[in-house]
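S1.2 Input.
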Amino acid sequence: MQLAKLNDHTYLIAPNPSGAGLSRSVAGVDHNGQPVDTSVVEERPLTIYLNSQEIVTAMTIGDYPEYLALGFLRNQRMLSDTDQVTAVQFDEELETVVVRTEQETNHEDKLKKKTRTSGCAVGTVFGDMMEGLEDLELPSLSIRTSDLYQLSSIINRTPSLYLEAGAIHGTVLCEGNRPLVYMEDVGRHNAVDKIAGWMLETGTSADNKLLYTTGRLTSEMVIKCALMGIPALASRSGFTAWGVEIAQQVGLTLIGRLRGARFVCLSGKERLTYDSDPSSVADDPKKSRRKGATS
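S1.3 Output.
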């Protein structure tokens, strides 16, 4: 596992703003009609197969395709705890990933029930995902406000494709006050799926983790987080009503509008420990503020 140290913090996986093929410079003109070169994010199709069955084609920036495929299939419940993955094969030329399992699979009926979700790059969930939440019990996780402030500070100061080019979402797997794995993609659902794939591949427990996302706290984000077994979800962006309802239903701690010293908790407030004075928390520098950072 390659470690990356940024801003005096060591990530297990960190963004790579200068990574080959992730962005490119495009010539244009600015509001004064002056020539300007702007960095823009690349996106390309990736078709995911489960054994011999084509499942979906996702638009992605192209990094960590194996994690994206594993996480997508796991989050759509096409891979269960009992499925033994025997191979994950990425073909860069064909832009495909094939996930192979010991037992044959058939998800034709499931593929007929798709729901297109709101948000950038248009996510796709399958119509029976809510069924997986009925008997779900998430672990209890105490969250210190000092940890929230430190996570927000580290994440928003970390060099990233967003700060380099914009038009992208990030998702970070955290433990206590430490961000561990930071994934980016054109759709926040893809970034979450990469995290899920990494957790599946490495056997990482979700019990004591918090998921941080730069995007809105929608029903899809809450469902994905809950099905991954992660008990807390935070964002510097806002909420949707259905996302809040589902979080309250499954007992997931939901924290939004996390900017500087401010945040709002709409589910699981009893798990918060207020151990830090908000007046002592510095606001984010303007150069590191993400979308939605203004009041």
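S1.4 Remarks. The radius of gyration is 19 Å.
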